[in-house]
Amino acid sequence: MNAKYYIRTNGRANAWPIFLGSEHPFYSKANPDDLSNASFSIIKSDTENFSSKTVRWEVLVDAGNNTVSYLIRNENIIPDTVVLTHAHMDHSLGVEWISQSYYYKYNKKRKYPLYATKPCWEFVKQSYPHLDNIIDFKELKPGISTKIDEVDNLRVTPFPVFHGSAAFGASMLVFEILDNQIHSKIIFTGDMLCPLLREKDYKYINESDVIYVDCNNRFSYPGSNHGSLITTVPGGKSESKFLTEWKKGIFLSHLIAPHLERNYDIDKNSYFDEFLSENPDLLKIPFSIIDLVKKTNISKVNLVHYSGYEDRKFYNQDVVDEKELENFANEIALSLKLSGIFSVPQVGDVHIVG
């Protein structure tokens, strides 16, 4: 039987999908899985009904609240490795549980492999110092493809993003599945206000199979350090005053600062040298999902990490449910003649690759 490749949504929520004592139209408080932080699995399996007998390998992308619980209640196997977009708790909390499971399974003789940028890993170690003894850290460098050693036919390339000054090494992860039948690219942005890409990087991710993208709000509020669908004001064409004013007080050096390290590394520093030389100002940087899709022509756009609180607080706009969010995004895409289809995945949804 020929195995196929799948992307499963293990969680789709932001850090605090429902505040205690409140309600949220997007998330169901009666469904614990719907309160899971954004997490995904890339799976090679003989069938779409995953089990310990059918799954050949699983690579986990981020592991926040409820990720491990979800894995246990489904195929209940330890992912072959985990790859982190960044180290904030709602993306890394489950790493401790997973790595300890692996470490004890192999009688404390094998360390668990984890892929991340070095600034990301250093932040993880500050949060969980004991993990340094049980994790085999494998460094990802910006713009450089790295083979995932633990599985076949998979490599990942990280690209820096800005998610605030305390999101050290935060990266968009572009996975490539490469075998004789399939050459597919899958993108996970993690949390981001904007990507920090060079011109050749846009070409590299052009027409990727699918993107799972941070859609914290419909309208731009850069103070959240998260993504929005559009940069314009509700019902108008002018740029949000919040974004306009924020850009006036920001330099490119601020956007790249969370990625810089004390020691010089030619691979890392050359990436940011190229980025700065191609972006003398902020004009080329996409500050919305729509603008990113315009530049990359990605046909399948999955919106995750929705909150909507800034829309209500700063624009007096409703916090919407998932269908309203999908409809809003697709209406804009249609008006701009974009080819991309926008969707909101459910927890447990499976995207078949290829």
Counted up, domains total 1
Can you identify the CATH class?
Answer: Alpha Beta
Q: Segments where pLDDT lies below 50 for 5+ residues?
A: none
- How many helices? The count is 11
**Helix/strand/pairing category:** alpha/beta
Q: Give the radius of gyration.
A: 19 Å
Mean pLDDT score: 96
Strand content: 15-25%
H-E order: EEEHEHHEHEEEEEEHEEEHHHHEHHEE
Q: What is the name of the CATH topology?
A: Metallo-beta-lactamase, Chain A
Write the CATH homologous superfamily.
Ribonuclease Z/Hydroxyacylglutathione hydrolase-like
Helix content: 25-40%
First-residue to last-residue Cα separation: 17 Å
| Main beta sheet strand tally, sense and closure | 8 strands, mixed
Total strands: the figure is 17
What would CATH call the architecture? 4-Layer Sandwich
What is the overall silhouette?
globular
Task: List the SSEs and their pairings.
Layout: E1 4-11, E2 39-45, E3 55-61, H1 67-73, E4 81-83, H2 89-92, H3 95-105, E5 112-116, H4 118-127, E6 135-139, E7 146-147, E8 154-162, E9 171-178, E10 183-188, E11 194-195, H5 199-205, E12 210-214, E13 217-219, E14 228-230, H6 241-248, H7 252-256, H8 266-278, H9 289-296, E15 300-304, H10 309-315, H11 322-335, E16 341-343, E17 350-352
Parallel strand pairs: 3-4, 4-5, 5-6, 10-12, 12-15, 13-14, 15-16
Antiparallel strand pairs: 1-2, 1-17, 2-3, 7-8, 8-9, 8-11, 9-10
Walkthrough of the structure:
- This protein is of the alpha/beta class.
- It has eleven helices and 17 strands.
- The chain has helices at residues 67-73, 89-92, 95-105, 118-127, 199-205, 241-248, 252-256, 266-278, 289-296, 309-315, 322-335; strands at 4-11, 39-45, 55-61, 81-83, 112-116, 135-139, 146-147, 154-162, 171-178, 183-188, 194-195, 210-214, 217-219, 228-230, 300-304, 341-343, 350-352.
- The strands form three sheets. Strands 7, 8, 9, 10, 11, 12, 15 and 16 form an eight-stranded mixed sheet that branches.
- The protein is globular, with a radius of gyration of 19 Å.
- The mean pLDDT is 96.
